[in-house]
Amino acid sequence: MNIKRVMIVGSMIVAISFGGTTWGKPIANASPVAKWSATNVAEKDDLLEALNQSSDQELYDALYDGKSLKDIAVENGGNIGNIINLQVNQLTQQLDQRLASGNITRQQYVAQKAELQEIVTQSVMTSFG
Q1: Residue 16 CB partners (closer than 8 Å, separation 6+)
Q2: What is the C-alpha separation between 13 and 42, in angstroms, rounded?
Q3: Is residue 115 packed enough to be buried (19+ CB in 10 Å), middle (13-18) or exposed (0-12)?
Q4: Cα separation, 6 vs 91, whole angstroms
């Protein structure tokens, strides 16, 4: 399991769930599709780097213990600003794709993009324990 994908999809779900209630019109096709894959190819994991974690399992264990991403970053000398920027950039790319494909209107895109920073920041600071 790639914890980075879990966090991104979770943040996207939060963003989308607000979409139907705070921006007026419900969004069609609002559920994100997560592609889970297991490969033996080593790839750079930006989230692990920002958190200064050595593996997905280490991050998973910390999250399972109820720590927030902020807690993990502080404990390991990671960079919380990089974590927030990483997630905001990835969610912005997803919004760009949804706008380009016609799944959301320009007005919905602008409203959702305006709240991404705040939603992601709250998510990163929240413990789930």
Answers
A1: 27, 30, 31, 32
A2: 27
A3: middle
A4: 13
Domain ranges of the chain: 3-20+45-125
Amino acid at 87: Q
Q: Tokens 């609002």 label which residue? A: 30
56 touches 63 (CB < 8 A) = no
What is the predicted pLDDT for the residue at 121?
Answer: 94
Distance CA 12, CA 90 (A): 10
Please, what's the largest Cα pairwise distance for the chain?
Answer: 44
Helix, coil or strand: residue 40? coil
The series of mean pLDDT values per 10 residues for the chain, 129 residues long, is 59 54 44 39 72 90 92 91 93 96 96 95 86
Among 69, 67, 65, residue whose Cα is nearest residue 47: 69
